[in-house]
Specification:
With 253 residues, the protein is of the alpha/beta class. The chain has a single domain, classed as NAD(P)-binding Rossmann-like Domain (Rossmann fold, 3-Layer(aba) Sandwich). It has eight helices and seven strands, in the order βαβαβαβαβαβαααβ. It has a seven-stranded parallel beta sheet, with helices on both faces. Helix 1 crosses helix 8 and helix 4 packs parallel to helix 5. The longest helix is centred in the middle third of the chain and has 29 residues. It is globular. The relative contact order is 0.15. Bound molecules: NADPH dihydro-nicotinamide-adenine-dinucleotide phosphate and 2-hydroxyethylsulfonic acid.
């Protein structure tokens, strides 16, 4: 069976680790790409590297008006997005809730949740009209398994999981698919961003282990997105073999 080829794929956070890997994976089968991100130079470099038709959009997913405008006025040839990959997102800090920076919390909610909702809402009507589409959200194992200092990041990804499942309920019968891909540890700039540029602290997250790579995650997304249209993957949880679960914590006096 030849895989289903999404004609046009829109990727948010295309300037980051996962985003670039997703772009390369879909370019390899000739999907047209809409690449959204905040860094114009990285978008241009990726467009120049890829051997497929690419439209780039410089936009912050937290800017609702800008998202509505940019996604609502895609140029001919790119305006029928079949697969939306809601990937833009970040974690900031690992301080306990009682010490965490409220601005960091707001940024995570605005980006990981509100931004994802803005992007989804902007493209859903077109997908429904065409009777075909796929919203692929990048959740996280953090959305299922809390850890100390994960507080709002974990909660923001739990939102993504439940929003994905709720979307499925609303979209039944429309032909539009929804998948939440939930990776564990993957080496990208994620930890560098989380620790605000502290490379030593970020490096320790991945030291002496074998994390997943962005290409591994791209393979999972690609699998779900290229299944035949009648086949919906609701949730796809993936992690490195070297990662697993710990016991519940018990405070003893
Ligand atoms: P990166 O830091 O490499 O990439 C994050 C991407 O999100 C960047 O392109 C970044 O753009 C973009 N982004 C952040 N804020 C905004 C914003 N306000 N508007 C537009 N774009 C924004 O990390 P990853 O590739 O690892 O992360 C991608 C997604 O995967 C995130 O949602 C993350 O939560 C999730 N994830 C990551 C895991 C990991 O271990 N790495 C595991 C599970 C999930 P810019 O460069 O402009 O900041
Ligand atoms: C990223 C995975 O475990 O750092 O979503 O939260 S984790």
């Amino acid at each position: 069976n030849a895989p289903h080829k999404p004609a046009t794929v829109l990727i948010t956070g295309a300037t980051g680790g996962f985003g670039g890997a997703f772009a390369r994976r879909f370019a390899a089968i000739g999907s047209k790409l809409v690449l959204a991100g905040r860094k114009a130079d990285r978008l241009k470099a990726l467009r120049d590297e890829l051997n497929t038709e690419v439209h780039t959009i410089e936009v912050d997913v937290r800017d609702r008006t800008a998202i509505e405008q940019a996604f609502g006025t895609l140029p001919a040839g790119f305006d029928e997005v079949e697969t939306l990959i809601n990937n833009a997102g970040l974690a900031l800090g690992t301080d306990p809730a009682q010490k965490a920076d409220l601005d960091d919390w707001e940024t995570m909610i605005d980006t990981n949740d509100k931004g994802l909702v803005f992007c989804t809402r902007a493209l859903l009507p077109g997908m429904i009209e065409r009777g075909r589409g796929h919203v692929v959200n990048i959740g996280s194992t953090a959305g299922s398994y809390p850890y100390p200092g994960g507080n709002v990041y974990c909660a923001s990804k739990a939102f993504v999981k439940q929003f994905s499942l709720s979307l499925r309920a609303d979209l039944q019968g429309t032909g539009v698919r929804v998948t939440n891909v939930e990776p564990g540890m993957v080496e990208t700039d994620f930890s560098l961003v989380r620790f605000k540029g502290d490379a030593e602290k970020a490096g320790k997250v991945y030291a002496d282990t074998t994390p997943l790579t962005p290409d591994d995650v791209a393979e999972a997304v690609f699998w779900a997105a290229t299944l035949p249209p009648h086949f919906n993957v609701n949730r796809l949880e993936i992690m490195p073999t070297t990662q697993a679960f710990g016991p519940l914590a018990i405070h003893r006096t």
